[in-house]
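Sync notes, pocket subgroup
Present: LS, DG
LS reminded everyone that the earlier model was apo-only. Rerun requested with adenosine monophosphate included. Inputs:
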Amino acid sequence: MSADPNCIFCKIVAGQIPASKVHEDDEVFAFHDIHPWAPVHILIIPKRHIVSMVDVDAEHEGLLGRMMLLSSRLMKQLGVTNGYRHVINTGPDGRQEVQHLHLHVMGGPRPWNKG
Ligand code: AMP
Ligand code: ZN
């Protein structure tokens, strides 16, 4: 499935729900988290609907690498110079709330709201 009509992040990718976009290319979309834990808190997502890390395999190697590399580039671009944290929540015990794979990247000066 490339898009799930009931998925909030698919709707963001499609421009049906507003988001504060920081990056878009053919495979990946990135935007600011609506409830930031840190001064800078972005979400990097695949444009196509992938539920979670449970659903990735070797064919997604390039996509996942691209998301990780993009994270460093975007943190630099957003002025984060003193470190940041990556989080991917997976499934119920991982407390994943949105069922579309997303990489949280959080940074900026302490203290943070959470984390
Ligand atoms: P998770 O618990 O890893 O599934 O986190 C989902 C994240 O998505 C949370 O940090 C939410 O604040 C964020 N979020 C949910 N809806 C939106 C939205 N419309 N725009 C931006 N971020 C959102
Ligand atoms: Zn989706």
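DG: The helical segments are 8-13, 61-77.
LS: The first helix runs from residue 8 to 13.
Action: DG to write up.
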